[in-house]
Amino acid sequence: MTAEPRIRLDQLMSRYGYCSRGQSRAWVKTKRITIAGVPAKDPSEKVLISQILIDGEPVECPNGVLVVLNKPAGYTCTHDLREGASVYELLPPRWVDRNPPVTTVGRLDKDTTGVLVVTDHGDLVHRWTSPRHKISKVYEITVGQELDDQLIPLFASGSIVLPGEIDPCLPAKLEILTSTTARLELVEGRYHQVKRMFASEGYEVLQLHRSRFGDFELKGLAPGQWRFEPRIERPK
Ligand code: URA
Question: For a 10 Å CB count at each end of the chain, is N or C smaller?
Fold first, then answer.
């Protein structure tokens, strides 16, 4: 087993989103931080994270954040406040001040609901958004007019070319559930892909809900709720 590395206390405070390195002096002065039960004296001291309490609490998520959020409609996946409410408002505010900050793994449109993975593990974001890894995503769709069975072989054929694009969409598995609802499994994540695939065949998507991303599912999470996920090697 490798020994727990030491980190400067002021670096720790900024890395985990508590305050800037400069501000950590004030936190030390007001005795908000203890090291193995003793108030910290010097922000430059090299410490073991496991020995630190901040306002009496251990350092939050010392090994990184990985959560599944049930994104409600009306929230964007950006940090830009001009775009209205953001999914980051549904998460602990300190997480966006971490370095690196938490970020969504890909984006859902403002009106799309469902499974959204959020993490500060840059390697996971990269892997799970890279087209090379072909992560499977499942969407539940309601459209504005009766669905035609011919969409099933068409979406499966890998021949749909979206307006303004050159490469056809990869084969996607469409299941028609009722006359106006369907389930679509994709391995890509192009911009507005589901809405644009349906639009290319004359359908307006009225409701879009992602029920699975890789093997992450909601498992009873209500809209706006999130839960921690263990960091394991998924989705495949
Ligand atoms: N496809 C879309 O069109 N919108 C989403 O939010 C996700 C996939």
Answer: N
Residues 168-193 have pLDDT tens digits of 999 999 999 999 999 999 999 999 99
**Would the pLDDT of 235 be above 80?**
no
Closest Cα to residue 175, out of 202, 152, 208, 146?
Answer: 152
What single letter denotes the amino acid at residue 94? R
pTM of the full structure:
0.93
Residue 28 belongs to what domain range?
A: 6-58
Q: For 216, which DSSP code?
A: E
Cβ(227)–Cβ(221) under 8 Å? yes
193 lines ligand 1 (CB under 6 A): yes
222 and 108 in a common domain: yes
pLDDT tens for 16-51 read 999 999 999 999 999 999 999 999 999 999 999 999
Is 109 annotated in the active site? Answer: yes
Per the CB < 8 A criterion, the answer to whether 125 and 103 are in contact is: yes
Task: Specify the number of domains making up the chain.
Answer: 3
| Atom in ligand 1 nearest the alpha carbon of residue 189 | 8
